[in-house]
Automatic annotation (TrEMBL):
Domain (RNA polymerase sigma factor 70 region 4 type): residue spans on this chain: 152-204
SUPFAM superfamilies, A to Z: NTF2-like, Sigma2 domain of RNA polymerase sigma factors, Sigma3 and sigma4 domains of RNA polymerase sigma factors
Protein name: DNA-directed RNA polymerase sigma-70 factor
Gene Ontology cellular component terms for the protein in this record: DNA-directed RNA polymerase complex
Residue span of region Disordered: 1-25
Similarity comment: family membership: Belongs to the sigma-70 factor family. ECF subfamily.
Gene3D superfamilies for this protein: 1.10.1740.10, 3.10.450.50, Winged helix-like DNA-binding domain superfamily/Winged helix DNA-binding domain (1.10.10.10)
CDD domains listed in its UniProt record: Sigma70_r4
Chain ranges passing through the membrane: none
InterPro entries: ECF_Sigma-70_Domain, NTF2-like_dom_sf, RNA_pol_sigma-70_dom, RNA_pol_sigma-G_actinobac, RNA_pol_sigma70_r2, RNA_pol_sigma70_r4_t2, RNA_pol_sigma_r2, RNA_pol_sigma_r3/r4-like
Length: 340
């Protein structure tokens, strides 16, 4: 389904079954829209794609609009919307292969390995702008959990779960729903929910990665130095910023590299086109990220960084610029730094 604006929800709903008798169309649209960000975050965790998540939420909104006159209020509007969103996601996941990162599919390659042919978009977990999935305000502890739960590594771990287990774990562990609430949403029993949660936790424990560190002053300085070194293409300066086991991945290609030596060898060789790049800061997956433009001003990649122990441990470079740059609100040609 094509993504639509709020006004388009109203038009489509008016053409369908109509709104609830106790809510004017504009009021109902506003009530539904209030849940868009958190629902998008939920669907992104379920599906691993920002584009699929937005489509799933749009379908949720349309279904809610059309059925709102039959909503009896036995559950909260929020719970009802999550029930619809869960059903939409489970339908989308029927028969589909799980999305992954390059490192989830194969062993690291060497810098001399041919890059190969790009794989279809449905193969990969994609990045998502923080503003689409994370609340701008709220309890700091809850916001920290939310940021951690949209990290690429966590999304990749979720994709290893069966779809219903995935829903149970997100609702229980990320959104703090009770087992009874989740059972009601899924039309299941509390015992079944607890069993699914136990199995999901065991699966995630086997593939867990260390939690991300908070973006404090030292990390901000690390990022400043990274931008400076990358834009000057000073590989000696970049060497000091990379962890010895740092990784480089470049979806839609399956090839990925591990180790500072191969990382830098790639930049000196096949990645030499990065010389003269401009980096524009964005926020993705709860982590620091950049829109990378080539020296000629054309978009090259969305970079999402992993940082730990004062070093850059991973660079995920997503090359589908035609779709991703508009998603992040970036122009398709570099116009220079924004005025201070």
């Amino acid at each position: 389904m094509k993504r639509s604006a709020t006004s388009e929800i109203t038009v489509e709903g008016a053409a369908g079954d109509g709104g609830a008798p106790d809510a004017a169309p504009g009021e109902l649209a506003d009530r539904l829209e209030a849940y868009r960000t958190e629902l998008t975050g939920y669907c992104y965790r379920m599906l691993g794609s920002a584009f699929e998540a937005e489509d799933a939420v749009q379908e949720t909104m349309v279904r809610a609009w059309r059925a709102h006159d039959r909503f009896e209020g036995r559950a909260s509007l929020r719970s009802w919307l999550y029930r619809i969103a869960t059903n939409v996601c489970l339908d989308l996941l029927k028969g589909s292969r799980r999305r992954a990162r390059p490192m989830d599919l194969a062993s690291p390659a060497s810098v001399d390995t041919p890059i190969g042919t790009g794989l279809p978009e449905a193969t990969w977990i994609g990045p998502v702008p923080d503003a689409r999935v994370l609340a701008a305000a709220g309890d700091p502890a809850e916001r920290a959990v939310s940021r951690e739960s949209v990290r690429l590594a966590f999304i990749a771990a979720l994709q290893r779960l069966a779809p219903r287990q995935r829903a149970v774990l997100i609702l229980r562990e990320v959104l703090s729903w009770s087992a009874r609430e989740v059972a009601e949403l899924l039309g299941s029993s509390v015992a079944s929910v607890n069993s699914a949660l136990q199995r999901a936790r065991a699966t995630l424990a086997a593939s867990a990665e260390a939690p991300a560190e908070p973006l404090d002053d030292s990390q901000q300085e690390l990022l400043r130095r990274y931008v400076d070194a990358f834009e000057r293409f000073d590989l000696d300066a970049l060497t000091a910023l990379l962890h010895e086991d740092s990784t480089l991945s470049m979806p839609p290609y399956a090839l990925w590299l591990r180790g500072r030596a191969d990382f830098l060898a790639w930049l000196r060789g096949p990645g030499g086109g990065c010389a003269g790049s401009h980096l524009v800061p964005v926020a993705a997956n709860g982590r620091p990220a950049f829109g990378q433009y080539r020296a000629d001003g054309l978009p090259w990649a969305i970079q999402v960084l992993d940082v730990a122990d004062g070093r850059i441990t991973g660079l995920h470079s997503f090359l589908d610029t035609e779709r991703l740059f508009p998603l992040f609100g970036l122009p398709l040609r570099y116009g220079g730094p924004k005025p201070a």
